[in-house]
Amino acid sequence: MKSYFPEGFLWGGAIAANQAEGAWNVDGKGPSVADVAKLKDNLALDDYKGHWHTSLADIAAAEASDDTVYYPKRRGIDFYHRYKEDLGLFAEMGFKTLRVSIAWTRIYPNGTETEPNQQGLDFYRDLFTEMRRLKIEPLVTLSHYEMPLHLVTNFEGWASREVVDMFDRFVRTVVDEYKDLVRYWLTFNEIDSVFRHAFTTVGIIEENYDSILETEQAIYQALHHQFVASSLATKYIHETRPDAQVGAMLTKLITYPETCNPEDVQLAQKENRENMFYSDVQIRGEYPRHIWNEWQEKGFKVKMEEGDLELLKEHTVDFLSFSYYMSRVASIHADQREKVGGNVTSSVKNPYLETSDWGWQIDPAGLYISLIDLYDRYQIPLFVVENGIGAKDVVEADGSIQDDYRIAYFQDHFQAMNEAIRDGVEVMGYTSWGCIDIVSASTSQMEKRYGFIYVDADDYGKGSYDRIPKKSFYWFKDVITSNGATLYEKLKV
Ligand code: BGP
Questions:
Q1: Taking burial as the number of CB atoms within 10 A of a residue's CB, which of 363, 420, 451, 480 is the most buried?
Q2: Is residue 256 within a helix (H) or strand (E), and if so which, with residue range?
Q3: DSSP 3-state helix, strand, coil percentages of the chain (rounded to 5)?
């Protein structure tokens, strides 16, 4: 097969402020939910709930501590001070784009302020200016698991309607500030994760509610506010820069039926449909009927203000971005099956798939299937904004990192993406997750490495923090330079 990647395909990488910048309390930045995330290197690989769980006691302990060892996201990889060096390495690979997020608490430390923190504005202006100087197109996530902690402890997180207005103020500030530098925006990272880890996504703490149902209703309320905030952001960005493009961002969790038993097939279809409910709202502009029926059956009252539904309908996104790491299996006998880990979830083990060191099932065909499914459902451009393999990389005696497994992972996934493009899917670009080693979202580990660039730091912050290109760095550079043609040459491993 030949390369079907279109001219101008946006090859690049992705990071997030809370996992890379560090400088958690520097130059006026306030504490975010990420700054209370403890190192969780001792939990079972498939214990995704444990990895993400944060209690009131955890928050109190974190607020009383200025530790940067056991709260690794406070230090990240010090991208805040080293971004010029890192951008230089991305430019050396030939990146056309880089996905980053703007930390809300660098601009409004508590979220409630009416005036922005100028040092925060200056940082991102310098960052985006340097990216453009290097011909790297910024792809900016407005919310990536880094909301102000103040809104969790002094409000009901996103379940409080006031947070919609505070986020709108943050969006208007950064869109006004960077409209000449930024053309591509994403609203809420993995907006479908709200039920899987409510603290980091919507600032909801289960302990504050008397029952599971009450918590669920609060999360739906918070989610509605995020849908409204996403439409308000889309509206403002379009008004401010007509050629700007706004994307929704979904965790694509493709689920296969364990057997051809119709009950397994129906279960898998239900899981896939639940996953796409979130992109349905942001692309079709309305709640699907099954959600209204679910709310009625559960007696949920999701408060909506006059004009909310019209806003959702009128201001839908221009493209759909998504993360893809692994696939899942649905079985009516799941309770009797072996489980494996996964991105923000766990799954019944698929006997046909290998897994990563963290138990995530490696499935390039799943990327092809996801691209076809999403394009057939929405008929709008797609953007793969997270994909990659977290692995325990080893620095050899000669200082090199021979990450042939990462090259093989990307080779297979890029070929799957190319096949989907040949089969008609419009893909705007691809940004590998963690293009440089950064702190893991779920476990706050450094050892779970995704990058083409190694960062010399361990789970406890020990190391020089020097950057070392891995073998995959040079391989990816060839893929970008050839716009995918080298994918079909014999692998040079
Ligand atoms: C996604 C997040 C990213 C990223 C990725 C990998 O859910 O959007 O922030 O971290 O998962 O997950 P982890 O870092 O836990 O391996």
A1: 451
A2: strand 255-257
A3: 45, 15, 40
Report how far residue 456's alpha carbon sits from residue 96's, in angstroms, rounded to the nearest whole number.
26
Q: ∠ CA(281), CA(247), CA(411), 5° rounding?
A: 115
- Which tokens is 13 given? 């990488």
Task: Give tens-digit pLDDT for 318-339.
Answer: 999 999 999 999 999 999 999 8
Mean pLDDT per 10-residue interval, the chain, length 493 residues: 95 98 98 96 79 91 94 98 98 98 98 98 98 98 98 98 98 98 98 96 96 96 98 98 98 96 97 97 98 97 98 98 96 92 84 93 97 98 98 97 98 98 98 98 96 98 98 98 89 51
Atom of ligand 1 nearest to the CA of 390: 16
Cβ atoms within 10 Å, residue 69: 12
DSSP tag of 355: B
The answer to whether 227 and 304 are in contact (CB under 8 A) is no
Q: Looking at the annotation, which residues are catalytic?
A: 190, 386
Q: How far is CA 94 from the centre of its chain?
A: 22
The answer to whether the pTM exceeds 0.85 is yes
- The mean pLDDT value of the chain amounts to 96
Count other Cβ atoms within 10 Å, centred on residue 18.
Answer: 27
Is 33 exposed, middle or buried (CB count within 10 Å of its CB: 0-12, 13-18, 19+)?
A: buried
Under DSSP, the state recorded for 231 is H
470 Cβ contact partners less than 8 Å away, ≥ 6 residues apart: 393, 400, 401, 402, 403, 406, 451, 452, 453, 454
Taking a C-beta distance cutoff of 8 angstroms, is the pair 285, 378 a contact? no
- DSSP 8-state secondary structure symbol assigned to residue 455: E
Q: Is 391 in the pocket of ligand 1 (CB under 6 A)?
A: no
Residues near 336 by beta carbon (within 8 Å), at least 6 away in sequence: none
* 135, 480 contact by CB (below 8 A): no
Atom 3 in ligand 1: which residue has the minimum CA distance?
Answer: 441
H or E element that contains 278: helix 262-284
437 in contact with ligand 1, CB cutoff 6 A: no
